[in-house]
Amino acid sequence: MCVLIVRSRSIIGAFVAAEKRIVFPYLSLCDKRKISSFFFKKKKLTDSFTLYSMKTDQTGYASVPGLAYENQGWVTEVEGEIPNEMEGTLLRNGPAMYEREGFIKSYLDGDGMVTSVAVKDGKAYFRNKFVVTEDFDEEERTGKYIKSSIFTAEDPRPFAFGQRLFKDLLGGDISKKQNGAYNVINWGGSLCAVDYKKPYALNPDTLETIGHGNCPLSSTTHTSHYRTVTEPDGSRRLVAFINEVNWRVNHKNEDGSEHLGTTNAVFYEFDEDGKEVARRSYPYPSSYVHDLIVTENYYVLFDCPIKIDFKKTFTDYLTQNACLSELICEDTERQPLFRIFPRRGTDMTVRTAPADYWCYAYHHVNGFENDDGDIVFDTCTWDKFTLYFTDITNPNGKDNFPRMKLSRFIIDMKKYEAKHYLLSDVPCELPITSWDYTGEKYEHMYLSTSVGRKDGVNGPMQALTKCSLKTDETKLYTEEQWIPGEHKFAMEPFFVPRSGKDLDEDDGWVVALVHDARYEDSDFGGRGTEMVIIDAKKFSEGPVARLRLPKYVPYGVHGSWSPEYIAGPPKADELARLEELRKNSDGKVPISLGHKDIIQTTSKKEVEELDLRKVGAGIGGALLGITALSEMVGQMGFFQ
Length: 640
What we know:
Blueprint: E1 2-5, E2 21-24, H1 32-40, E3 71-74, E4 77-80, E5 88-97, E6 99-100, E7 103-104, E8 111-120, E9 123-130, H2 134-142, H3 160-170, E10 183-187, E11 190-194, E12 199-202, E13 209-211, H4 216-219, E14 226-230, E15 236-246, E16 251-252, E17 258-259, E18 262-270, E19 276-285, E20 292-294, E21 298-303, E22 306-308, H5 310-313, E23 328-330, E24 337-342, E25 351-354, E26 360-369, E27 375-382, H6 390-393, E28 405-412, E29 417-424, E30 428-432, E31 444-450, E32 453-454, E33 457-458, E34 461-468, E35 478-482, E36 488-490, E37 494-497, E38 508-516, E39 528-535, E40 543-548, E41 558-562, H7 572-584, H8 604-611, H9 627-634
Antiparallel strand pairs: 1-2, 3-9, 4-40, 5-8, 5-41, 6-7, 8-9, 10-11, 11-12, 12-13, 14-15, 15-18, 16-17, 18-19, 20-21, 21-24, 22-23, 24-25, 26-27, 27-28, 28-29, 30-31, 31-34, 32-33, 34-35, 36-38, 37-38, 38-39, 39-40
């Protein structure tokens, strides 16, 4: 074992703060070339030499005890300084509670909890609050799960075999629980939490759930993936989409042949006031897509090669040995495809470009039209289809371990062919760029990345990495990685631009939450959560500020950065309502402003029981947002 003492905030200092010890248990595996690359190439770090325990990061999937866990308050423990010029709100959403009365659901089926950190004048205010969907509200009243879910094999409904056979498969009614757990966005005066298909409006001051259909953004049906783009006149738009798959209706191709199943892709655009200003609908052959790319003239979807597992549908699903989402599997007999949809004008022709590289792609970086009129499409590629992303969420070092790659495809818009270029083989996911460059030529991206490699096995997703390349190139010119600590695991990053004109693309900060698996002062079984702020221009130097949040926050799925300061300290109305609840409380239950302003009923005993309980890690949890998959599976053909 080799111990390295870091005493400067150089690229080596990217791993931890100055003068902290780093242990590299697998340094002996590295040859001199790799060591030289680590110490002397200031801007490039493609190989790491640690392989931290693959199980340590699993503590980030622990369920919290429900409404009694909601909290708010100033962040008082800060290492470094929050930049005074930074103003806005970090918003995160993800499953946080997945157990009731001993019934444990898969992580992705857990109830959504929105976390906000509002930053202004060098100070930060924290809130966390559950998304109270209609199903969540009913479960709180009854104290148990009622509806089945997409990612959990066990079914809480009575006579589950009959329900699944006659109601789900034969009756075509597969309505599942809405958990409001996959993203949160503040746009055009509306704050919305999103699960698969159904968004819920939230109070921007308190994060309380208002409900579905309260505003245009919460009234349409869309997934948790969206893009913000700049129009030619300088105005901004938010683009959302949904894919509805019907396997009962075959798609008729131009040559007269038929394809099993039809997909209807709907793209929505909302202006800066939150009004829907465009909607375009396209039918095309059935497929599974997850995310989208938006350019000046096109919407682009990556069509993953999948098919229905009919045998599992009528065996394992009926006997509760498979969940709904496990009824689709790889289709190795066809190529991945790019589906290209016109964004403007009267042309509604859907064009297809096959890829020359067999892969799956869920979360995309960015895309744009180059000078030749071709589409550049950057994404994170996988070599297998895994519904629960088990390579990330439950790695075992054998069958499951991170192996994603950073890829660039160039789609020839004359031949309609897509050529693949490998940008990096460092496993990566959850990419983000500056939103000011969405759909445009760009240079910098920020990702969650794997740390460590031993005998061909990559370590867990732990670090944040900044990758840079010129717009007309197919190779990175720099790859900087920052590791938060031996038992710390970074979540999805977000870019916060500085205010001002004529600034560089990377002039700003990267912010992210970090799971701390061994927090000494934890009140939740050793778990804790930090928020880090990194100067994007000095990425490898690490955070300028670390904020210790008052509560442990599970890994979560997706989120966003809002340039608007929302969900800050309580205003007069909130203070008055809280005081009224206190007056009416008997002191036996926690007080929380929730759905319909009812004092919540989660017991203190439940809080204590769940405080040290770890669930979700081994039951097919998922760190990443699979909401487009949820939509696709939720609309599967014979189920309609």
